[in-house]
Design brief:
By secondary structure, this protein is an alpha+beta fold. It folds into 2 domains: 94 residues, Malate/L-lactate/L-sulpholactate dehydrogenase, four-helix barrel (Hypothetical Oxidoreductase Yiak, Chain: A, domain 1, Orthogonal Bundle), CATH 1.10.1530; 187 residues, Malate/L-lactate/L-sulpholactate dehydrogenase, NADPH binding domain (Ribosomal Protein S8, Chain: A, domain 1). It has 10 helices and 11 strands. Strand 6 and strand 7 form a beta hairpin. The longest helix has 19 residues. The radius of gyration is 20 Å and the shape is globular. It starts with a strand and ends in an 8-residue tail after the last helix.
């Protein structure tokens, strides 16, 4: 979604990192944890997943203030085997919990070839692609999936929102080519994108949400609660969302279905969000340099294959992430006026230097 910056200004990544870190610290998060969480949050802005970056900082701070999310969580391993582990996030910041879980999955993979780490008592962890990309940076295949922190889809054909837009992301390393990073919600539109429309007032696209009673499209973002989001690919997307929910939720002893707690809803009840991350050691299957060369060859052939009429270029998942990261690292990020107003109010509330003043 295109963003209109406040006066054309772009905000430096360093300033966004510092502002986010200071905001989290002002909410009681230890400095070291605040730095890690800020890095992972702003990673979403760097990669171009604007609905999951600094856009969510104020809501995150709200959950820290209410106690729904613990500022000082004791993240620990409940069970561990040669290739699996179950992590309890102690209701901590999701970015911290999943960074811990991803590092553990890679540790297991180095030892056993594969590491599957399930997570319970976690929270929203930002853009899904962040964690498989951590694996790809270490030459491993990474897979991440989560139960969304609020239900917006129904079972296929259902009118009650009982399933989340449960995301899945897969990262595969390459050589000179950018790692292949697929990061998708199982709904046609992620709710983060819809949340952006709520802030800006832009209408939704037809095919994103339908009314629970009439089945008619909902285009007014303020009326989303009256309907359900539609899955990608009809029953196939609904089935994928269901399977992710069962594996990330039920298997881990985390919330699923009617047990899911809306992270932005009233009260301070923990969400018990469930996620899982898988790391796979490429060397257990093929020599890594040979794999990287083959990845580059195939990606080049796919990109240079014949295009359909009206298509300007064939893109591979992940290549634009690399381009956006380079461009935004150099030139900063444009932020909407509505978001800047929210961040200014947050700075006043937390008594920290505003982003615009950094």
């Amino acid at each position: 979604m295109a963003q209109a910056a406040t006066d054309g200004r772009r905000y430096a990544i360093a300033a966004m990192l510092a502002f986010t870190r200071d905001a989290l610290a002002a909410c009681g998060v230890p400095d070291a944890d605040a730095a890690i969480a800020a890095k992972q949050m702003i990673e979403a802005d760097l990669a171009g997943f604007d609905a999951h970056g600094i856009f969510r900082l104020a809501p995150y701070c709200k959950t820290l203030k209410t106690g729904r999310v613990k500022a000082k969580a004791d993240i620990k391993v409940l069970q561990r085997s040669a290739a699996t582990a179950l992590v309890d996030g102690d209701d901590g910041i999701g970015h911290l919990v999943l960074t811990y879980a991803t590092n553990l999955a890679m540790e297991l993979a180095r030892q056993s070839g594969v590491g599957w780490v399930g997570v319970r008592n976690s929270n929203h962890a930002g853009a899904a692609g962040i964690y498989p990309e951590m694996c790809a940076a270490q030459g491993m295949v990474g897979i991440y999936a989560a139960v969304s922190t609020v239900n917006h889809m129904g079972p296929w054909g259902g009118a009650e929102p009982m399933i989340g837009t449960n995301p899945i992301a897969i990262g595969i390393p390459a050589g000179k080519e950018a790692p292949v990073i697929l990061d998708i919600a199982t709904s046609v539109s992620s709710f983060g994108t819809i949340r952006q429309h709520m802030v800006t007032g832009e209408p939704l696209e037809e095919g994103w949400v339908v009314h629970s009673k009439t089945g008619e499209p909902i285009l007014d973002p303020k009326k989303v609660a009256e309907g359900v989001l539609l899955p990608i690919g009809g029953h196939k997307g609904a089935g994928l969302a269901l399977m992710i929910g069962l594996l990330a939720g039920v298997l881990n002893g985390a919330a699923f279905g009617r047990d899911v707690v809306d992270a932005m809803g009233p009260g301070s009840q923990p969400t018990n969000t469930g996620q899982f991350v898988v790391a796979l050691d490429v060397s257990r299957f093929i020599e890594p340099k040979a794999f990287a060369a083959e990845m580059d060859r195939h990606l080049g052939e796919l990109r240079n294959s014949p295009k359909l009429p009206g298509v300007d270029r064939i893109r591979m998942p992940g290549e634009d992430r690399r381009k956006r990261r380079a461009e935004r690292s150099a030139n900063g990020v444009g932020l909407p006026a509505t978001l800047m107003k929210q961040l200014d109010e947050l700075a006043t509330e937390l008594k920290i230097t505003p982003l615009a003043g950094r």
